Prior knowledge:
Helix 3 crosses helix 4 (114-127), helix 3 packs parallel to helix 5 and helix 5 packs parallel to helix 6. This protein starts with a strand and ends with a helix. The chain is globular, with a radius of gyration of 18 Å. It has helices at residues 44-51, 76-82, 98-108, 114-127, 143-155, 173-188, 200-206, 224-229, 234-249, and strands spanning 3-13, 19-29, 33-37, 59-64, 67-69, 83-86, 161-165, 193-196, 209-214, 217-223. The chain has 250 residues and is of the alpha/beta class.
Amino acid sequence: MNEILQVKHLKKSYENNEPVLKDIDFSLQKGEVVVIVGPSGCGKSTFLRCLNLLEPIDEGSIILNGETIDRKDKNVHQHRQKIGMVFQSYELFPHLSIMKNILLAPVKVQKRNRKEAEKEAEVLLERVGLSDKKDAFPRQLSGGQKQRVAIVRALIMHPEVLLLDEITAALDPEMVREVLQVVLKLAEDGMTMAIVTHEMEFAKAVADRVIFMDQGVIVEENRTKNFFAYPQTERAKQFLNTFHYEALEI
């Protein structure tokens, strides 16, 4: 496999100078799926936002296909298109139909032919089971359907890397599976992804590698099976035991 994304010594603080990310090193291979887990507030979502250049970094570098990328670069929009992102909250425009939501970026930003983009959008909607919803509006869709549209909107930009940030956190439990099935299919098709999630069973099913973060640092990383069966640090063991406890309570 080829290394597609590298992060070297990334540091990030907010205005109060409290460090959120402390000297993060990270790499992602082409076709690899890495799941990032950890307690709330440990820096997982901020890390993804830095990768997508939505957040400025204080120190370090982000390298995509051998090229260092930066928010201050005049080509920042082109870089951001190569690293797609799907958020917890869908971010769909309520006044636009599903098709218009999907077509907005490829037509306006990438200047692609509208008819060609529409054909691709129809194929992608079919792929996620929403071909009958292209003329609907976001208010007419369930949370799971809106999240699948958000995934299509990211895919139509042809990203080289797809970042997924807690995409099931706002969904009812019965809607979670339909979204996760879409992501599992993307993984099978070879999509390069970095995923932040609290769904441990999903992480087991989709990840090639798991990274465990806490307090702004990577505490542990390992192949998926080894991470869940034989965590190497006490902190990771504590974290995983919490989920075992919750499962028993249910």
